[in-house]
Write a structure and sequence with these properties.
The complex is a heterodimer of chains A (557) and B (108). Helix content of chain A is 72%, strand content 1%. Chain A is mostly helical. The radius of gyration of chain A is 24 Å and the shape is globular. Chain B is mainly alpha-helical and 108 residues long. In chain B, strands 1-2 form a two-stranded antiparallel ribbon. The chains are: A mainly alpha (557), B mainly alpha (108).
């Protein structure tokens, strides 16, 4: 066993042990605890849990590398995945918390109609499932790269630990485990980032100091045939229009993703929901503001390391990671002339996006324990996101489908818990299978999950809160047309569904179509609602109720 | 400010006064929301995307300004917007006597 492997085992066993202890201490007995942690989660803890839930294996491992090569246009992810929290905080979280039940489909069911609830439950399951498969696969990859285990065993091991704390503790277990996971992942991310910033510029704050290297990086990138980091609209083929639409789609999708929204049901008060949103974005931004800096620094170090070198004299880490297939060197090249992150580019040195974070401790010359900590951080990111998604799948399947369609009345609390746990267990088994054999469309999780969340959930949630006249037929028609429109365009432009990839219409990439789908949903919902009878007085009264933190009568008594 | 005070000792039936305070509360909430959303749009989509190229001509601490807004400034702005919203809503809640600061959730 190498020193790196020792430390990786050390940190993985240590952190998994902590997660299991937390899970055992927060095991639950009631449905309300299982689904919404009894609405007793303090705002700071909820913020950290949302952040861990939000930042997936891809955020942790892939984002810095993605930005390094996208350059300026990497901002679509940075703004898209943070700006959505403003929408959540201002437009959704306080009102959904005031209404205060268990799931997102349940809200639209109460607000609109049972058929909307069914469509919403199915959408929630599909969206979350796409997402969770990527996490399982991501966890498996971390295992295989750092420990030399097979991906299959990695996936199974991840699933067993998640199974333990999710089935036992439901939302409560997941929340408190996520607080621990956030701590692990942010420490693992920030240490190498601060170190590399300090080594390169003498200023240990990467968010500030990466400005200093940008002109050097641009010059060096040009030498290796890469586009300049600072040039806007160079990274994405669709240019400005596409950057705009992708950013908007990711923001609307963020605000519409059920696994994020339900976290705001777990706070004690409406006020708590508002502050939870603040803490969530605060914790998320610690990583997101660092990612572009890590990308820029590591890319600069990488290019400087290979400049003027022949394939035999490259830095050590390239050999170490060559075995994983993440780095490919053209052995026939005299010296390394071109660098790319695209496997088919034919460049002398081809690096996978993930390598920029995974190898950053080695590129920066940091000791083995830090590498082990990175592995634990990657695992924490994958597991925390997977657990949150599995909860959405199980709650939609049991609470919104089983107890609404199959067994409509007379379920005891005990029975509901049991069905919830069984649904969770089944979801984990399916996720293991899919994590080992990922269906092709999972590679497009960004387009798919965010596009569908933006075009189905977001508009009807907003209209449901801010427009009393939005009604059941309107929401059903809106949701279905958003869904059909968006998925049709994705099937048209992406190969992953087994169809040919066609050219993008008007430069709109499949990742950006969600924003257009959301507009379609908005318009259809409004038009159909206007043409049909307004919702009942009871429903309108409910909309009125959720707009205020508490009734004044309650406040006075 | 006086909303709570005069309501507390007047015997107005809840139905009648309910509507007026609610409308005023909701209007204040909406106005705050729209102002914050305007800033949200201007900084992210405005400075970070639509105006990024002209702004990139200004360089501060090595950062072309448009790039800085797109990768850093917009996120700081989002954070401030949510904080301002939460603090301001506390103030509005106090004004209308619906604050939840000291209880465990009040409304169940």
């Amino acid at each position: 066993m190498t020193e790196t492997q020792f430390w990786t085992f050390f940190f993985i066993i240590l952190t998994f042990g902590i997660y299991i202890i937390i899970a055992w201490r927060s095991r639950v007995k009631e449905t309300k605890e299982f689904y919404v942690a009894s609405q007793g989660v303090p705002t700071l803890a909820n913020g950290a849990a949302i952040a861990a839930d939000w930042m997936s294996a891809a955020s942790f491992i892939g984002m810095a590398g993605l930005i390094a090569f996208l350059g300026s246009d990497g901002s679509v992810y940075l703004m898209g995945w943070t700006g959505g929290y403003v929408l959540l905080a201002l437009l959704l979280a306080p009102y959904l918390r005031k209404w205060g039940k268990f799931t997102v489909p349940e809200f639209v069911g109460d607000r609109y109609s049972e058929s909307v609830r069914l469509v919403a439950a199915i959408c929630a399951i599909v969206v979350s499932f796409t997402y969770v498969v990527g996490q399982m696969a991501g966890g498996g990859i971390v295992f295989s790269r750092f420990l030399g285990l097979s991906i299959e065993w990695g996936v199974v091991l991840v699933a067993v630990v998640i199974f333990f704390y999710a089935v036992l503790g439901g939302m409560k277990g997941i929340t408190y485990t996520q607080v621990a996971q956030y701590t692990v992942l942010i420490i693992a991310y920030l240490i190498p980032a601060f170190a590399v910033a300090y080594q390169t510029t003498g200023i240990p704050i990467p968010q500030i100091s990466y400005g200093q290297i940008l002109s050097e990086l641009d010059a060096l990138s040009a030498e290796f045939g890469l586009s300049a980091f600072t040039e806007a609209f160079a990274g994405r083929a669709g240019g400005q229009v596409d950057v705009f639409l992708v950013t908007l789609s990711l923001m609307l999708g963020t605000a519409g993703l059920p696994h994020v929204i339900i976290r705001f049901y777990t706070t004690k008060t409406v006020r708590g929901a508002r502050y939870s949103a603040f803490w969530a974005l605060f914790f998320i931004s610690l990583l997101y503001l660092t990612a572009p800096a890590v990308g820029a620094f590591t890319k600069l170090n990488l290019l400087q390391g290979v400049q003027g070198q022949s394939p035999d004299t490259l830095p050590n880490w390239i050999n170490t990671w060559g075995a994983t297939g993440l780095v490919t060197v053209n052995e026939d090249a005299e010296t390394i002339q071109t660098v790319s992150n695209i496997a088919t580019s034919g460049a002398d040195l081809i690096v996978n996006n993930d390598i920029l974070v995974l190898a950053s401790p080695e590129i920066g010359g940091l000791p083995a324990p830090i590498v082990g900590l990175m592995a634990a951080g990657g695992m924490a990111a994958a597991m925390s996101t997977a657990a949150g998604l599995l909860l959405v799948i199980s709650s939609a399947a049991s609470h919104d489908l089983y107890f609404r369609v199959i067994k409509k009345t007379g379920a005891t609390d005990k029975e509901q818990m049991l069905v919830g746990r069984i649904a969770m267990a089944v979801a984990i088994l399916v996720a293991i299978w899919a994590g080992i054999n990922p269906p092709a469309f999972v590679a497009q999780v960004v387009a798919f999950a965010f596009g569908l969340a933006a075009s189905t959930f977001f508009p009807i949630l907003i209209l449901g809160i801010f427009w009393k006249k939005a009604n059941g037929p309107g929401a059903t028609a809106g949701m279905l047309s958003g869904l059909v429109f968006t998925s049709t365009y994705m099937i048209y432009t992406l190969e992953v569904f087994g169809t040919g990839a066609n050219d993008h219409i008007l430069n709109v990439s499949p990742e950006g179509i969600g924003a257009v789908g959301a507009a379609v949903n908005f318009i259809v919902t409004v038009v159909v609602s206007k043409l049909t009878a307004p919702p009942s007085q009871v429903v309108q009264e409910m909309v009125e109720e959720i707009r205020y933190p508490q009734t004044r009568a309650a406040a006075r008594s | 400010m006086s909303d709570v005070a005069h309501e507390g000792n007047s015997g107005v039936p809840p139905e009648a006064e309910d509507i007026s305070w609610r409308q005023r509360y909701w209007k204040k909430n909406l106005r705050l929301m729209l102002v914050l959303l305007a800033v949200w749009f201007t900084v992210s989509f405005g400075f970070g995307i639509l105006l990024i190229e002209p702004l990139n001509n200004i360089v501060i601490f090595g950062f072309p300004l448009g790039l800085w807004f797109a990768q850093q400034g917009s996120v700081y702005t989002f954070l401030i917007l949510i904080l301002v919203y939460a603090l301001w809503m506390d103030k509005i809640d106090d004004e209308f006597g619906v604050a939840e600061r000291n209880d465990e959730g009040g409304y169940k």
